[in-house]
Write a structure and sequence with these properties.
single chain; about 230 residues; Uracil-DNA Glycosylase, subunit E; two-stranded antiparallel sheet; 9 helices
Amino acid sequence: MAKSENLKQWLTRLDCEEEINEIFRNLVILSSEQGKKIVPARENVFRAFDLTSIDDVKVVILGQDPYPQIINKVPVAHGLAFSSNVEQFRPKSLENIFKEIEDSVFDGFDLNIVSRSVNLEDWARQGVLLLNTSLTTFVNEPGAHIHLWKKFTLRVIEYLNEYRSGLIFCLWGNHAKGYAKYINKESHYILESGHPSPLSANKGHWFGNKHFKELNTILEKLNGKESCINYY
């Protein structure tokens, strides 16, 4: 599979080419032994790194693992945390993210979120690294490969922590918050809250965190208004 220039740069800086090859060797073995299909499609596994160059990262939104569903023979997951590759599949977590943007950034103005694409590639192109801590899973088996990707994900976070400054890390839910200890709060910004999933959001742990407004306030302060993220 041909690698994008952005991905080549990531892998070179992270010095993890052999580690990635080993992960894929293990995935092939597991898939063959268990007769299970892996998502996302191979060409989308590193989509977050294809779209967001290592030097252009402004914000890191940390998810857990890819959506395990396939809709009409198309994997919902496409390498971007919280993003959906199938417009007919609107994840509840993402709907809650859009609702929080309406409430915090636009003061409750109705943006008609049902018309907003569930594909977040436009965010990725603006410097939002939509990073899952596991880049693959088996169909209908969430969390199946977290153990395989843990070391790689940690290397990404540690690299950004050490060699970049002024990044905003959004850590939603206990799983993501577990990575806060690898981030230097003197050099970066950490925004923590509950997860946007209905289970968490409906208990009052998500809505009202105002993260999307806050991160744009930080970006404007650091690099001017033109650096703010256009969510819609």
